[in-house]
Each structure stands twice: as structure tokens, then as C-alpha cells.
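User: I'm writing a short report section on ligand binding and want a predicted complex to refer to. Could you take this sequence and calcium ion and write out the structure as C-alpha cells? A short remark afterwards would be nice.
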Amino acid sequence: MKQTQWWKKAVVYQIYPRSFNDSNGDGIGDIPGITEKLDYLENLGIDVIWLSPVYASPNDDNGYDISDYRAINPEFGTMADFDEMLAQAHARGIKIVMDLVVNHSSDEHEWFIQSRKDRTNPYRDFYFWRDGKNGKPPNNWGSVFSGPAWEFDETTCQYYLHLFTRKQPDLNWENSRVRGEVYDMMRWWLDKGVDGFRMDVISAISKVEGLPDGPIEEGDLYGNFVPYAFNGPRMHEFIREMNREVLSGYDIMTVGETPGVGVEEAKKFANADMSELSMIFQFEHVKLIDENGIKWGDKKICVRELKRVMAKWQNGLEGKAWNSLYWENHDQPRSVSRFGGEGRYWEKSAKTLAVCLHMMQGTPYIYQGQEIGMTNTIFESVRDYRDVEQINAFREYTEELGVSEEDMMRWIAKEGRDNARTPMQWSGAHAAGFTDGEPWIKTNPNYKQINAEKQAGDPDSIFSAYQAMIRLRKKFDVVTDGKFTLLDPDSDKNFSYTRETASEKLLVICSFSEKPITFAVPDDMIDSKILYCNYSPAPSATKELALRPWESVIFYKKRVFTDK
Ligand code: GLC
Ligand code: CA
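Assistant: Sure. The C-alpha cells for the complex follow:
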């Protein structure tokens, strides 16, 4: 199969189905609800939908715990609904990429039901079963979602490993039968016509033999599994095998979710030789907010650090591998709240974040609602939480680690995953037009001001800014191909860079400041043409540019020697 790398020119839109659009009033977004909104997405201009899991699942982690990889969760509709959505999307030139969650399954998956029955069951070795040590788990690892990473099972008096919740047992990729089953299932979806996969925590599929104890920091309850479970010794070997067995047979897009992966590993994962995946999601920029690897806290983003990390990835992969570009997804808070300004400069900063990200090299991802500048929400009560991570962390921090409820509520409002999972704000109607019934999670109260209906037809809206960025990507090859150079690396007020090829050059200037600032336009870009500005009137490219709060400007020049 000829692989055309079409995804280099594509813009992806992520749908979290539960919160996107409810077609039947049960308060849960569903597949027919997505089909209803394909015209909206076509109008936005995106090329690909990444669909978070829609498979059968007991929903311990909202579908990231799959009990049948070839069935649709009835809450979301039927396989016929899925086929209809896929056909309708394809008819509009929109591709669909599925979530592939195979580091773990649900404990309600048939493989695990078999596996836990007895120590000699043919599926026993599909998971990690170990004896305890002196009445304690086999090692000291803690789970991502609080508590130990091991669960004792009385049926056979052994523990099983779960890096995530106890209902998400880790699959044992050392077992070639596990890999064979996964590859079969992937081919089944690809043969149905889906256009690729986003691979959930794929950097965790190879664990270090012997599963050694992880390092423990002072004050921690558990050891850190990262050195032994991420970037493991056989990770690339497994991905290369998957590539040979499955991926290379189709002209598809693949993106690995790879926490813990740095530039050097990424060059292997997303190598231009196409031996592994199309691209990966790196985590460094969204983890800048962490303190000692912990996401709950008051730390703020430092613009200079953000620039350093983004530039490192732009330059590190240049000519060797391909970047993905994202500010948001279903696990991250809203970008305008985290990186931008929610108050007076909400609109300007949301547009500037769009400009800053979309003019870089890589494939951009827009998370549902980002295109209208949806913001974080305030959780009045713990009872408003739905996310298992937030619920468990709240309990662990307030009951076992001595953190006050007040601090924890504030940290969760700032960093919690439910910020991204409130219903998509379609209109000012009941429940933001998401459902006729009661939504499964509270709607962000600002939906009357911030909604798609208000913005879709307004040429000055955030939505229109996203449309404009998508159009620019399509029109100018330099956005795809140009070499990235960060300007003014030490400034924490502007995030600016150039992109250039032999024949074109872009200058992208983004103020990350609420105050007016000035910017020195490089000599060769003075008098260049303006492609976009989030203020009007737009400035011209003079030597000393006065930038208004959160102003963003894109200048463009054909390079002299090719100018006809
Ligand atoms: C990934 C998903 C996240 C999920 C976790 C476990 O990080 O994006 O939502 O909770 O994996 O599957
Ligand atoms: Ca529904």
C-alpha cells in the first residue's frame, strides 16, 4: 500500500462523544449526535475526527476501559449508527480515527474474565499476575489514579497489575497471543474503513522484566513506576511489529499518546521512514504546570519555558520526524484558562493561542469547544465531579495527605479533567443545546455568552479565527514545510517565530501579554504582506511594531529570488 502522508496537511478535531451532542435526550452524547454535527465540522474546515472511545465499556474511566473492542457502547448507539456516521463523514471528505486502548482492557473484558478464573487458564498470561510479598503487593508502584497499582484477587490469591484504575488491568504485551489479538482487531476496524488510530498510553506497553520497585520521593505513598513501565525495552520492537503486521497495509494516520517520551524516542516513533507511527503526542508542554511530577498545585505557566519546550520539539524533529500540535484534549484543562486570559482578553487570547499553535510545524489538533474558546468551570461541590481521577485524588489528598479541601477544590478547578468534559456549548438554550434532558455532567454556566451558535456566522469570532488558520495551512506550503526559528527566546511577553522554505517565509508574532508591548520586526520581513491579525485595523510590518494586549499577527513574504 502506498502511504501518502496526507496527514501532514490535515487538521484534526477531537470528539469526546459523551459530551459532544445528545440526540435522544438521555443526557449522554451519542453517535447520531455526532452525525448531526458533521456539517458544523465541515464548515470549520477540519479533515479528521479523532473519536475518543465508543466501544462497549462499564465506564469506570468513561470508555477508556473497554470490555469489547468490536462492539459499540449502547449508550452511544449501534454499529449501524457508527457505519452511518463513518459514511456521512467520508461523504464530506472527513476521515475518522479511532481511539485504540490496548495497554489495558476492562476487567469485564472476556479475556480478563477468563484470566482471573484460575492460574492455568489459557488467558492467564494475557495480564500480569504475581504473588504478593509478605501480605503486600508484588512491588511498590502506585496507580495513576491513586492507590496501589496492584489489586488482590481472592479467586486465585494473586495480585494483578493496573497502572490506571483497578477496573483497567494491564495487558501483557510480552505474550505474542495478546499482540496477535490486538492486530486482528485493528485490521477489523481498518477493513471497515476507519482512517487510523490514536493509541492510548502506548509508551507503557513494554514493562521492565521483574517489575522492580520504583523510586519513592519523600511524602509519597507509593513508588513511581515510570522508569520501569514507560519507554520499556521492547516498546519500539512491538510498534515496529504492529507496523509490519497492520499499519503498513493501509494509507492511514496514527498518533501515539506517549507520556514520558522525549525528543530522541519521538524520532524513532514518528520517524519519516514510516517504520512506526505517523506522530506522537508529547507531554512536556502540558506538564510544565506540574511540581515534582504532581499536577495538583498553584503553579502558573511561564511563557519563556513554554516557548523553550515548543521550540525544542519543533527543532528536534525537523526533517527527521513529524510533530503533533495540541493545547487541549479530554485530559487537559481548557487552554484559554491555562495559557490565555479568561477575563477581558478571553477572545483575543483564544485567537492568539490558535495562531501560535497552528502556524507551527506538525499536525494540529482542536479539542471540541476549543474553537469557540470554552473555558474551565467552577466545581461548587465534590458531588459535581465525574472524573475518576479527580474523585480519587480528592479523597487521597484530603484524607491521606493532609491537604485542605479548599486547596484541593481550587487545584481541581484549575487542572482537573472534567474542565474539558462539560457539555459542548452549542447555543444559549437549555443545557447549552447539548441535550433536551439532564446532562450527565454539569454545563459550564457561561454557555449563554460562549456558544457555537453565536460564533459560527460571525467573522470576528474565535470560531472564524480557527477557520482562518485552517485555510492558511491549506493555502501556504510553508506552514507545512517551513523550518521553525524561535525569535526573542528570553521574552516572557511575546511568543514569536518564523517559518521558512526556499521560496516562502512567515513571521508569526503573538503577544502573551495583557499590556501593550513592542516587537522588533526582523529586517527582511519589513513591508511584508499581512495574512492575519486578531485586531482591526491590522498593523503593517514596520521596524518597531506596537502590539496591543494579546495581539497576534502573521506576515508573509515570497522570497526574493523566486519572486516573479
Ligand atoms: C489516556 C487517556 C485517559 C485515560 C488513560 C487510561 O491517558 O487519554 O483519558 O484515563 O489513558 O486509559
Ligand atoms: Ca444520548
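A remark for your report: The CA atoms of residues 272 and 484 lie 18 Å apart. The mean pLDDT is 97.
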